[in-house]
Each structure stands twice: as structure tokens, then as C-alpha cells.
Amino acid sequence: MQGGALYHYGTSNSQCTGASSAAAGPHAVSRIGTQRYCYDAMGNQTHQYQGSTLVRRIHYNAIGKARRIQSFTSESESGRSAGITEFMYDASRNQVRRTSTEQGKTTTITQHGVAELISEGGESWFRRNLGNAIVELRRGEQGGDSVTTRYVYTDHLGSVDVITDDAGQVEEKLSFDAFGKRRAVFKSNNQAVNFTLASILSLTHKGYTGHEQVDHASVVQMGGRIYDAHIGRFLQADPFVQSPSNSQNFNRYSYVLNNPLSYTDPSGYLFKKLASPFKRVIRGVFKALGADISQTIVSIGSLFCGPWAPACSAAGTYNVARAHGASSSQALRGAAVAGASTWAFTPSGGPAAPTASQVTVRLGINIVAAHNPNMGQALMYISGSLGKDFGGWVQNAVGSYGQYKAQSELTRFAAKNGLSLQELNLILGLNSKLGLAIAGSTYDKNAQTVTGFTTRSGELLGNWSGRIGVLWDINDTLLNAQGLLDAVSLQVINLGHTGHLTGHSLGAWRVNNLVRQGFVESGTLFALPGFAYPAAGTQGACVSTDPVCGGGLLNPLRVGTMHFPKPNSIWDSHNFDEYVRQWQQRKH
């Protein structure tokens, strides 16, 4: 029962006879009061009767699209009148032409994208639908073309609400109930607004949820299927079950799960949940701030979600992408990468101290740098240089430039392999964590040292940790070249080490990046690889015969780097113990 009328489903009507008629399906409305409905074998409604009088007939083409909709009688309540509307489609099933005949007047609209050619009564003109603007061009016989622009304002469902001229004067006002039936528009003093359907249709055929109205037959053309707003049902069976967990979705004729204020159906096949007002505000802010700044805010801010940081990052990234025009699939891919990157570039279990905002912000900057070299390196440089003297700012600037160039090269490498820099760094970051879990770490908390290649120590591989761990050492080298924190560096942060730290080879690179970004107060760098530049707050050394750090040739260019002479054995040139021995001799 609805509106005082009893709905019948799946029953037969005496009017429904002939070769094209078939029994109504289990959810097909067959009778409402004195209204009778008939269907074909595909579940498409073909006839509507008022008692024994035929009031509407619909013809479909071979692919199930409505091609001819004809109404035979007039009805003031529904706004129905006698008329015929015919549709033509291209090979891709897109509508390309609509021809309507009502009250002796024929209007043909030929469509191509946002452009329409309208022909009526021997006159033709062009109309373009550009966003919320309707631009009409009429060509005069003597070349005096006229252009008229009107603006369409919609409600939260996308239904046309108000149409104004280019000066903002209201030309038409429309209103629809929840299920799309046209209704009267009233002023604030409860007086009805006197607008006619004919004047509305002269401006646009769009109406409920932005779809085309076929008002003479009480039909809404939703693209894939047609819909009757007066009964709140589709007139064609849905070929899809979009949400199997919702029993409403098994009703092949129901409109958006019978929840028209929360969902719309853009295609006539699949419903779409409406964005909440809060979401629209957030996306509006992201659009105003720009993609880079918005993503930076998301990357840093998400870390304050604690253990939910990856989820916060994914959700924020999705909305940033959507705000800047990305499709749902593109935004989902970006969100997945961002969420995984947040997990990959934060210590296990999340930031060591979520309440320590300075640490959290610096970790967020590291995540930004993983996908945006320009913004990330700039923020990393500023954050790590705060509190330093002028020389320290200059020293860090040299290192930041080297990291930026490394990221530029890796960006090109990633592009050649069909990846973005963020996706490449995600792979490196996840692999780094895998290496820490399998081959162990090079960080010795008691000795306060981080060593380099072949020195990993882990329980899983035992004595083989160092040799097999080289695979992950190479991986981590690519991260450290960009100034990014690998899994070993994140372990240092997670274990709360903030004082002085000594590093050797790749370990020196890790210590250097930790000092540069402000996670560690100071560091001693033995055999810092030649591609890196010492950060302000570090001092180090390079043996004259050690090729890893440039054999001493780079020492004059590196601030705070001592020159160590060749050891007794050339094979000890890169030996950590040899560095420690010579360092202690110098100190004493």
C-alpha cells in the first residue's frame, strides 16, 4: 500500500496479450489501483493502461534501450500529455538524437558530447552544456549571431533547482519530490510560483538528478534504463546486482535501494552514494590549497592518527586526488599507495611517540619526500636545519641538492618502468622492512653504532645474515641516496635513540640522514659513501685508499671530514675496526 493505492507485483492483466507480452516478473509492478502494466520477455515495461484505456506505450531496440515512448492521454496530476519521443543511439549505445512531438510541435535535439543542435519549427540553433552553464548560439540571417548564457543550480541530488540569466535573475524554478516527481514551487509567503512546463523545457530537458525528462509520458531517461518517478520504480529490469549483501538490490526494479535521498543512479544501472556535505567542504579546501600542499598536509597530519595512520593517509589522499579531477580508480590507486607508503616509512608499531609532535612531523616530511622531491626535499632541508648557524644551513643545502638529483634520476627510472616515484619508493620501503625482518639489522644499540654492507645480524638466517642481507643493503642504498629513512633507520627512531651515533659505510649514510633530519643530535661518519655529503652536526673520516668514500679525494670538499693514511694492509682500507683504531689515535 502506498499513497492509498494497493501495489500488485507479478500478476497478470487481461490487457496484456499478444506475441510481445510476457508474464510480469516477481518484482515488476503489474497493477496500482486502476493502473495496469504490461511487460515483454526481457522484463521491460511496454504498456500502461488506465482501466481499459491505453495511456502509454514504450518500444525498445535490440539492445534493450527505449527507442520510442508514446503517451495517448493528458493527466493534470502527473503532467502527462499526448506526445511521442524517439531516441537514437550510436554503436557505443550512447544517445545521439532525441525527437519529441507534443501539441503539434516537433523538436529534434542532436547531441555530440556537451554540444547540441536543436531544430524546431524550421529554426535551428546550438546549445552547449558547460558545467552549470547553458550557452545558446542563434545565427541571424544577416550574420547577427546572438549568444545567450544561463546558469543552472542544482540541489544535493543534482536535480535542476533554479535557472538564472547571466545577470543572476531567476528565469525558472523547479522542484522534485524525493523520488523525482515534479511538484509546485512556493515562495516564502506560501504563494505558488507561476512557471509553465513549456517554458522550462525551452531551456533544458534536464531535471531529476540531472537526467533527461520525458514529461509527456512521466518518464525519466537515465541512460541505461528509463524510470517512472510517479511510481518510484524503473520500467526495466536491472541486469546487475551491485550490492549482494543488501536484499533491496535483488529487486530488479527498485530505485537506489529505495533510498533516494542518499543515493543517485548516474547511469541507470549502478547507484552511487552521495558525498556528504563534510566531504564536499574538505575537497573544496584541498582544491583551493593545491595538490602539493594538500598532500603534504595529509601525509604529515595522518601520522597523528597513531596506529590508524595508513588508513588516514589513504582516505586523505583519495579526497585530494578526487578534488583535483582524478577518477575513482585513479584516486583509489593513489590512496592504496599512500596508505602503504605511510606504513612502510614509519617505525613498526607507528611513530615512537605520537604525542611528540616534532618527531611525528619529521616522519611525515620523510613520507612527503618519498613521492614529491620538490616539496619533500625543501621541507626536509628546513626542518633539519632549524637551530643551525649559517654554515650549517649551507652544509645541509649541499646534501639536499644531491638528494634531489638522486630523486630526479630515480623518477626517470621509475617512469621507464611504468611507475611513479612514490610507487618505486613504496616497493623499496616495503622491501627494506622485509630485509630487516629476514636478515636482521646493522644497528647495535649498546655500542651506539650502525654498520654497513655484509654486517647484518639476525636470528632467522644466523651466520648467513650478512651475506644474504647484501640484497637488502643495495635496496636501502637507493633509499638513503634520496635522504629517505630505511627500515634500519626507522628502528633507531623506534628504539628511542636520539644521542650521538657512529656509522660506517652504508651505516654512515643512515646516520647522516638521521642527523640531517633532526632525529639524532650528532654523528660520526666513517667511510661515508662518495655520493653523500655530510650533514651539519657530523664529523667523519675517510682512509686515503678507501674507494667507498672517494679515497680521500673528496675530503677537502667535505666539511668536518678527516684524512686517514693508508693502513698496514690495503685490505683494511674499508675495515670498520681500522677506522675506529685510527679515530681513537687522533682523539688521544
Largest sheet, spatial ordering of strands:
1-2-3-4-5-6-7-8-9-10-11-12-13-14-15
Largest sheet: 15 strands, antiparallel
Based on helices, strands and strand pairing, what is the structural class? alpha+beta
Number of helices: 14
Mean of residue pLDDT values: 85
Shape: elongated
Number of strands: 27
Radius of gyration: 35 Å
Give the uncertain stretches in residue-range form: 350-355
Keywords: Repeat
InterPro entries: Rhs_assc_core, T6SS_VgrG/RHS, TEN-like_YD-shell
Protein name: Teneurin-like YD-shell domain-containing protein
Domain Teneurin-like YD-shell: 151-260
Written description of the protein model:
- A hairpin with a 2-residue loop joins strand 11 and strand 12.
- Residues 350-355 have low confidence and may be disordered.
- It contains 14 helices and 27 strands.
- The longest helix has 27 residues, at 390-416.
- It is elongated and about 110 Å long.
- Among the domains are: 74-237, no CATH class; 345-587, no CATH class.
- It has a 15-stranded antiparallel beta sheet, with no helix packed on it.
- Helix 2 packs across helix 4, helix 4 runs antiparallel to helix 5 and helix 6 packs antiparallel against helix 7 (373-385).
- With 588 residues, it is an alpha+beta fold.
- InterPro entries: Rhs_assc_core, T6SS_VgrG/RHS, TEN-like_YD-shell.
- Keywords: Repeat.
- Residues 151-260 form the Teneurin-like YD-shell domain.
- This is Teneurin-like YD-shell domain-containing protein.
- It comes from Aliidiomarina iranensis.
How are the secondary structure elements laid out?
Layout: E1 7-9, E2 29-32, E3 35-39, E4 45-50, E5 53-60, E6 66-71, E7 83-89, E8 95-102, E9 105-112, E10 115-120, E11 123-130, E12 133-138, E13 146-154, E14 160-165, E15 170-173, H1 197-201, E16 212-214, E17 219-221, E18 226-228, E19 233-234, E20 263-264, E21 272-273, H2 277-289, H3 291-301, H4 309-323, H5 328-344, H6 357-369, H7 373-385, H8 390-416, H9 421-439, E22 443-444, E23 449-450, H10 465-468, H11 470-481, H12 487-494, E24 501-504, H13 506-516, E25 523-526, E26 538-543, E27 561-564, H14 576-587
Parallel strand pairs: 23-24, 24-25, 25-26, 26-27
Antiparallel strand pairs: 1-2, 2-3, 3-4, 4-5, 5-6, 6-7, 7-8, 8-9, 9-10, 10-11, 11-12, 12-13, 13-14, 14-15, 16-17, 17-18, 18-19, 20-21, 22-23
Protein name: Teneurin-like YD-shell domain-containing protein
InterPro entries: Rhs_assc_core, T6SS_VgrG/RHS, TEN-like_YD-shell
Pfam family, one: TEN_YD-shell
